[in-house]
Amino acid sequence: MELFAIALRNVFRNPRRTVLNLVAIGLGVMIIVTMKGWVGGLGASVYQTTIDLDTAHIQIIQKDYQEEARRLPLDLRIKDWPAVHDALQDLPGLVGIGARLDFAAAVSNGQSALNVSVRGVDPEGEAETNTIRDQIKEGGYFTEENQVLIGSGLARKLSLKVGDQVFLTALDQYGVRNLVDGSVAGIFTSGYGIFDDGVVYMTLKKAQDTLALGPGDATRVVLKFRDINQLGSNMELVRKALEAKGLGQAIGLTTQTWQVFAKSLVDNLESRIRIITFMLGILVILVTVGILNSMSMAVQERFREIGTLRAIGMNRKKLTRLFLMEGFALGLTGGLAGLVGASFLAWLGLTWGIDARGFLPREVAVPIVSVLHPLYLPLDFPIAALAAAVVATIGSILPARRAGKMIIRDALGSHV
């Protein structure tokens, strides 16, 4: 303990050098903790938005559907989705269950047309498993079978307003091109350009009629549960419930989690997170090198002191430990100073957040539909402070060993 007290006193003997080191370490810790919080917040927000707006937690599809998903195949469909609904509706923790019928179409205002993705939905089930109803900024949700919901970007491109008539042209299951009309019930603004510019919602029944399908046909059944942390056990419950009713593998149905349907998004986001993590690693290395340089200068400036300490009986091992403790004290103090700044930035982020929708290009395939907030784990802050101390200690190893190996005569020089 006495040795640590001496080390702590030595740290502050050169105020200028100490302040510079503390600033470097503190800024490093502040930046690392802050960036980690925002990266975590970005991942959590994007994944939750994907679940809420698109994938739900679990989907039931025909086993070959996902491999052919790009062409939105109508031949690979669930032919009795109400039976699937009945088999699963009593599962514990289930929030909602709905059916979807996805297909491609051209939507027109009577003068110009655009190609879009159409999602036929069971209005009640979609409201339970999807947040699109909450994103409606003009008009309202479905009240009639003949209504559609469109995004604000699409409405702007086609100059559509609530109540306007629209026309959709699509190929049915027999390859016949059908033209249907509908009225705009609501215009949604999700903040996700892909949805706002290119997705149209219509009722499941209207979609079935458009595609010459039966009343039980759907391309997927989606489920949302109360606790995403129980996803594995919920998957098993879904599979068992389907198998018990003969609605699983026996008729070619498979159950998948949301990650399967958002694979490209997850891979894209994780690659960006890896890049940011790499940059944080470089920052840690720079801080370590800075401490190494600072401690090397400290050894060089303190030759007489080192010689005196050795002359009065301090052995090499104890001297080495003294310099390591100085590095540890410097790192810990800088880490704690950095945490003060990081805590202030964390408070700002958690209180106000950042409206990322304001500066992300619409074409960026990252779904953020609300104000972005950082996400911190309880151990982030103490770990950061200890990590700073450890990094500083590592940066002190070589200078400490150099000090410990010095010969008394060389250290004292002409002062002997």
Helix and strand layout, with pairings?
Layout: H1 2-11, H2 15-55, E1 58-62, H3 81-88, E2 94-108, E3 113-121, H4 123-129, E4 136-139, E5 147-151, H5 152-158, E6 165-171, E7 177-188, H6 193-198, E8 199-203, H7 204-210, E9 220-225, H8 231-244, E10 253-257, H9 258-261, H10 263-301, H11 303-311, H12 316-351, H13 380-405, H14 408-412
Parallel strand pairs: 3-8, 5-7
Antiparallel strand pairs: 1-9, 1-10, 2-3, 2-6, 2-9, 4-7, 5-8, 6-7
Characterise the protein shown here.
By secondary structure, the protein is an alpha+beta fold. The protein folds into two domains: 2-50 and 265-415, no CATH class; 64-251, no CATH class. Helices cover 53% and strands 18% of the residues. It is built from 14 helices and ten strands. It has helices at 2-11, 15-55, 81-88, 123-129, 152-158, 193-198, 204-210, 231-244, 258-261, 263-301, 303-311, 316-351, 380-405, 408-412; strands spanning 58-62, 94-108, 113-121, 136-139, 147-151, 165-171, 177-188, 199-203, 220-225, 253-257. Strands 2-3-8-5-7-6 form a six-stranded mixed β-barrel, surrounded by four helices. Helix 1 (2-11) crosses helix 12. The longest helix has 41 residues, at 15-55. It starts with a helix and ends with a helix. The model has no long low-confidence stretch (mean pLDDT 84).
